[in-house]
Amino acid sequence: MILKYLRTTIFFLFTFAPCAFAEDGYRLWLRYDRIEDQLILKEYKKNVQAVTFERKSPTFQIAEDELVLALNGLLGINPVLSNSIRHTGTILIGTPDSSPLIAGLNIMDKLTGLGTEGFLILTATVSGKKCIIITANKEAGVLYGTFYFIRLLQTHQPIQNLSIASAPKIQHRILNHWDNLDRTVERGYAGFSLWDWHKLPDYLDPRYYDYARANASIGINGTVITSVNANAQALTPAYLEKVAALADVFRPYGIKVYLAARFSAPVELDKLPTADPLDPAVRDWWKNKIDEIYTYVPDFGGFVVKANSEGQPGPQNYKRSHADGANMLADALAPHHGIVMWRAFVYDNEVPEDRSKQAYNEFKPLDGKFDPNVMVQVKNGPIDFQPREPFHPLFGAMPKTPLMMEFQITQEYLGQATQLVYLAPLFKECLDADTYAEGKGSYVSKVIDGTLENHKLTGMAGVANIGNDRNWCGHPVAQSNWYAYGRLAWDPELASDAIATEWVRQTFSNRPDVVKTIRAIMMASREAAVDYMTPLGLHHIMGYSHHYGPGPWITDKPRADWTSVYYHQANSEGIGFERTTTGSNALGQYAPEVQAIYADVDKCPEEYLLWFHHVSWDHRMKSGRSLWDELCYRYHEGADTVAWMQRSWDALEGKVDAYRFQQIKSLLGIQYKEAVWWRNACVLYFQTFSGKEIPVGLEKPDKTLAYYEQLQFRYAPGIRPRW
Ligand code: BDP
To answer: Which of 230, 311, 377, 399 could lock 260 by a disulfide, CB 3.0 to 4.6 Å apart?
Structure first.
C-alpha cells in the first residue's frame, strides 16, 4: 500500500510537476518532456509500442515504472504492458532466469563477461515480431539497461538496430555523504542533508526514491550516508533502525548502504577502556556490533574510516598501524561480505614533513598488509581536492593493495554553489595520468579498475554535492558533476565532452545550438577556475576554514599546513613550493619517468610549475613573459573567461526554460564578481613580494589589498562545527 502511494507520489512529482511549476531542476537529468522533433518522434513510436516482462520483482517493477513514465512523457504513448509478445515494437525486459523468451534467444555467450551489473540492449526478432531486448545476468543490470535505453530516447539516438553491451569497469561506485546526524552537511552547499533522521524510520520522504532513481540511472551502487568525521551514535540501535529503512528503499535500485565508522565507538558507546584494535575485548565489540548491523541491514556494504587524521581517533592512538585498524574491522565484516574503505587522507601536525608526502610515507610501507576485503581510499591528489593537483603518488605505488579513488563532487575549493565549474575534466586529468608504475601506459584509471595490478576488488568514491535544495545540488549545473561522476565510475574511459553532451541533452535541450553553447561553457569552466583562483600550480590559498574566496595572506594558524603561506612560499625572490631534490623531494615519490617530466624548472609543464618549484619572478615562461607577468595574465584570463561564459549564456535566452535561464544568469554574475575578487586580491597580494607593476593593458584593481584582507564570512555555508 505504502509503496503504491509512494509510486503515485513520484509519478506526480515527475509527470505533473513540470506543468504546474517552473522547471526548477528537481527532475535532474531524468526529464521526460515530449520530443518535439516530429521525425524522431515518429521513428521512435514505430519502434516502441509495448513492454513485456514475464516475471516481476521489486527491481523489475521499478524498471517498468520508469520505462512507462519515460514513454508516456517522451513519446506520449501508453505502452501495452503484458507478459507475452503480441506487438512489433515490444521492449522485452528480463534476465534469462526471469524470462523464458530471453532464455530462448541465443545470447548466453553475449552475456558472459558482463558480470552481475552489465547489460545488453539488442534489436531481435522474437515470436515473429521485431523487438528491443533489454537483458542482463542479474536484475540490477536490467535496471541499468533500462535507464540506458531511456537515455537513448532522451538524447535522440537511433534505436532501429540496437546492439549495445555495457558493463561497469569499477565494482563499487559510491557516493560519500559528509552528512551529520543534525542534518548539517560538511562542505555541503545545497541545503541540509536529505536524510531526515528525526522522522526516520517511519516517514520515508519521496525524495529518497528519487535519489535512488537518479543514482541507478548513472550506475551508482553504494552510498555512505554519514560523514567521515563520524559520530558513533550512528551505530546505536536507534539509528540502525533508521539506516535500515533507507537501505530498504535503496535495495531494489541496486544501491547498498555503508556507514562511516568512528574508531573510538567502543569507548564512546560502551565505555570500554580502550579502542586498541589488537585488544580482544575491542575486537569482540566490533564483531558483535557488525553482526548486529547485519540483523538490521542484511546486505550492509561496510565502513569508510577516517582515522588519525584531523583529530579523528584511530589505531595510532594505541601505537598500532592503519593496517591493524583496518584489518580488525575487515575481519568482522568478512563473514558478511562487507568491505572496509580505509582513507589515506592523513597528515600530522607533529611531523615536520611536506604535507603532500605524508600519506605516501604512512601507507606505502603497509602495501600487502591489508586483508583482502580492504581498499585504501586515496584522494585524487596529495593535498586536498584543489582546483588542480598532480595525481596522488600512492597510485601505482601499492601494487599489492586495491586502491580506491576518492573524488570530491561537492565544490569545496571550486566555487561552492555560486560558481559553474564542470568537474569531469578534473576527474579525467587524474584518471588519464600515467603513473609509469609498470612502464608507459600505467594510467591511474588502470590502477583503479584493477587491471594494472590484478585486483578484483575495485572502487571509486565521490564526496556528494547533494542536499535538500529543490534542485538537489545548489547550482543548477552542479548536477552535471554528480552525473559525470557516476558515468566515469561506470567507465573511466568516457570523455568529458561526451558526458557533458549527454547531460545537456537530457537536462536542457537537444537543440544543437543549445547543446553546443552549454557544453562549451562547461568545458571551459574548470580551467577558468584554475586561472582565477590558483594558476600555474598554486594551491590551497583559499579563505581560512570555510575555503570561500581568496586568502593567500592566511598565516599564524594552529598548524602551519592550515595556512596559505605554507603552500605558496612567496618571497621577494619568487614563488612556489620546491618539491624537487633541492626542496622537500615530494617528486621523489613518483616513478622516475614522472620525475623526469617535472624535475627541470625549464621543462616542467606550466600548469604544475609552482606545485613543484619555487620559481624566480623573472623566470622566462613559454609565452616569453616573466613569471610575474604570466601570473597576472592568467588571473585576468580566468576572469575574462567567466565574462565570456556570461555572454555565451545570455545568447541562450528564450532557447532554454526561463526559470533556469535566470538562475544561471544571476549565478554567473556572482561568479564574475568572485573571479574578479580572486584576481584582484591575489595579484595585489603577490605584488607585495614581486614588487613589480601589473603589466600594461591589464585592468588595475579598484580596491586595496587591505580591503580584501578584512573581508569576513562568518556564516559561509558548509563549515565544520569544530572549525
Ligand atoms: C577536507 C575538508 C574537511 C574534511 C577533510 C576530509 O576541508 O572538511 O573533513 O577534507 O576529507 O577537504 O576528511
So the answer is: 230
In whole angstroms, give the CA distance from residue 97 to residue 560.
60
Strand partners, 460: 173, 405
Q: Is 437 helix (H, G, I), strand (E, B) or coil?
A: strand
Q: Residue 462: which residues within 8 A CB-CB, separation 6 or more?
A: 174, 175, 176, 406, 407, 408, 409, 482, 485, 486, 489
Does this model's pTM top 0.70? My answer is yes
Radius of gyration of the chain (CA): 26
Q: How far is the CA of 148 from the centre of ligand 1 (A)?
A: 34
**What is the CA 227 to chain-centroid distance, rounded?**
15
Q: What residue segments make up the domains of the chain, in order of their start?
A: 32-166, 172-506, 531-577+614-709
The answer to whether 239 and 181 have CB atoms below 8 angstroms apart is yes
Q: Residue 504 CA to chain centroid, in angstroms?
A: 18
Domain 32-166: CATH architecture, name and number where available:
2-Layer Sandwich (3.30)
pLDDT more than 70, % of the chain: 97
Instruction: Show the ligand 1 pocket: residues with CB < 6 angstroms.
Output: 186-187, 228-229, 306, 310, 345, 384-385, 412, 720
Closest atom, ligand 1, to C-alpha of 408? 12
Burial of 1 from C-beta contacts in 10 A (0-12 / 13-18 / 19+): exposed
Closest-CA residue, ligand 1 atom 12, reads 384
Question: What is the 8-class DSSP label of residue 626?
Answer: B
Residues taking part in catalysis: 310, 384, 412
Cell digits of residue 119: 547489460
Distance 309 CA to ligand 1 centre (A): 9
Distance CA(502)–CA(512), nearest Å, equals: 12
Task: Work out which ligand 1 atom sits closest to the CA atom of 312.
Answer: 13
The torsion angles phi and psi of 602, rounded to 5 degrees, stand at -80, -15
Contact between 393 and 165 (Cβ < 8 Å): no
Helices (H), 192-254: 206-218, 237-250
- 443-483 pLDDT, tens per residue? 999 999 999 999 999 999 999 999 999 999 999 999 999 99
- What is the enclosing helix (H) or strand (E) of 61? helix 58-70
Mark 31-62 as b/e (b = at least 16 C-beta within 10 Å).
Answer: bbeebeeeebbebbeebbbbbbbbeeeebbeb
Q: What pLDDT, on the 0 to 100 scale, is given for residue 20? A: 47
pLDDT in the model for residue 551: 98
CATH code of the domain made up of 531-577+614-709: 3.90.1330.10
- Residue 639 predicted with pLDDT over 50: yes
Give the model's pLDDT for residue 21: 61
Q: How far is the CA of 346 from the centre of ligand 1 (A)?
A: 10
Residue-wise DSSP of 301-339: -EEEE--SSTT---GGGGT--HHHHHHHHHHHHGGGT-E
pLDDT 10s digits, 526-582: 999 999 999 999 999 999 999 999 999 999 998 899 999 999 999 999 999 999 999
Determine which helix (DSSP H) or strand (DSSP E) holds 126, and give its type and residue range.
Answer: strand 119-126
The minimum-distance atom of ligand 1 relative to the CA of 413 is: 12
- Report DSSP state, residue 390: P
Cβ atoms 497, 488 nearer than 8 A: no
DSSP state of 340: E
Nearest to 379 by CA among 355, 353, 352, 349: 355
pLDDT band with cut points at 50, 70 and 90 for residue 721: low
* Rounded distance from Cα 187 to ligand 1 centre (Å): 8
Spatial distance between the Cα atoms of 618 and 640, rounded to a whole number of angstroms:
25
For 172-506, the fitting CATH number among 3.90.180.10, 3.40.50.300, 3.20.20.80, 3.30.230.10 is 3.20.20.80
- Are 424 and 484 a contacting pair, CB within 8 Å? yes
